[in-house]
TrEMBL record:
SUPFAM superfamilies: Glycoside hydrolase/deacetylase. Residues 28-134 form the NodB homology domain. It comes from the Bacteria. Residues 315-334 have a biased composition (Polar residues). This is Polysaccharide deacetylase. It comes from Rubripirellula amarantea. InterPro entries: Glyco_hydro/deAcase_b/a-brl, NODB_dom. Residues 314-334 are annotated as: Disordered.
Length: 334
């Protein structure tokens, strides 16, 4: 889950109200924890550093501890989707300040990062390597990136320099060059895994939940059939689906009229929660769903999920890693 807050959506839409930093984390996290807890599903949460300041947000984020298993990960400090235009020092701040806040609030160290707007310049990868991150998850290898960007630019009220910078969003056709499965990079001698957001095999269309609930707002039947097909194609092509959730997937139109422009936000809360639960249940019956770091270990047994525990020694972790060999047939993650 990318734990994007309301202010980040308002800013992306060019709405000046974002500056008062309106948010919904306490309400929505409660719903997420409840539903995923009932389904016994784990969750990786990409958290924005700006939301690790106010007490009520920190308490809400800490309440993910009520889940059977969750993993805190880094989603930048300010959620600016144009990291590719930033200076090196700014990029380092975006990642390292959030890293420190996550440690302070959750008592754990993030091992993964996802750039806002699926932006993944080389400098980001260097900072992640320098900080001993295990994976980046900023690649979205979709065929519709140029369309998604065009729709964004058409709908947003962003002006001037910000609009210019937004013109590189989603990576354009470049994003199609990337594989639809995890792969390993070598950054100055450091191994850094890339965990792309999975798209539909062959068509490369999105299968994350905002897209799915957007389809469902037109036809539940069509959306369910699309999602079933996506999971089936993942199975037959041996693709472990990394499915992306956002907080509005747990909200309906009666929750927030300011977000009405967001895909799927025309649905009533009851209908939205029902369709999301249906999809999560199907996902959990067809795949062995894991946090990103746990799933990554099926690709690379040297990966040590316990490295997230502060004060953990690497040597101990390696022993744990080599002594556990029970890998599931169909690992998956979100
Ligand atoms: Zn985000």
């Amino acid at each position: 889950m990318d734990l994007d807050n309301k202010w980040a959506y308002l800013r992306a839409a060019g709405n000046p109200d974002w500056q008062t930093r309106p948010g919904y984390l306490p309400i929505v996290i409660d719903r997420i924890v409840e539903m995923l807890g009932e389904l016994n599903l784990p969750l990786t949460v990409f958290t924005v550093g700006r939301d690790l300041v106010e007490d009520e947000d920190c308490v809400a984020i800490k309440s993910f501890d009520r889940m059977p298993r969750w993993e805190p990960a880094n989603h930048s400090l300010n959620h600016l989707p144009w990291m590719h235009t930033m200076e090196s020092s700014e990029i380092a701040d975006e990642i390292e300040v959030t890293d420190a806040r996550i440690r302070e609030v959750t008592g754990r160290r993030p091992l993964g990062f996802r750039g806002p707007g699926f932006s993944c310049p080389d400098e980001v990868l260097s900072v992640l390597s320098r900080n001993d991150y295990v994976y980046d998850a900023s690649i979205f290898p979709t065929s519709i990136a140029p369309i998604a960007r065009a729709v964004f630019l058409m709908k947003t009220d962003l002006q001037g320099a910000e609009k210019e910078r937004a013109k590189k969003l989603y990576g354009g056709f470049d994003s199609l060059r990337h594989p639809n499965h995890p792969f390993e990079r070598n950054i100055a001698g450091h191994s850094l895994w890339e965990m792309p957001v999975t798209v539909m095999p062959f068509t490369r269309t999105p299968i994350h939940f905002s897209y799915f609930t957007f389809l469902a707002s037109f036809s539940t039947l069509a959306a369910k059939s699309y999602f079933r097909t996506a999971l089936w194609l993942c199975k037959v092509t041996g693709t472990a689906p990394s499915l992306l959730l956002h907080p509005p997937d747990f909200m309906g139109r009666e929750d927030d009229s300011d977000l009405a422009y967001f895909p799927g936000m025309k649905m009533q809360r009851r209908d939205k929660l029902a369709i999301v639960r249906w999809a999560l249940e199907l996902y959990s019956t067809q795949f062995d769903v894991r946090c990103m770091i746990d799933a990554l270990r099926t690709f690379d047994p040297a990966v040590d999920p316990d490295a997230a525990q502060l004060g953990h020694s690497r040597a101990t972790g390696n022993n744990i890693a080599t002594s556990t060999g029970q890998l599931a047939q169909s690992p998956s993650f979100q």
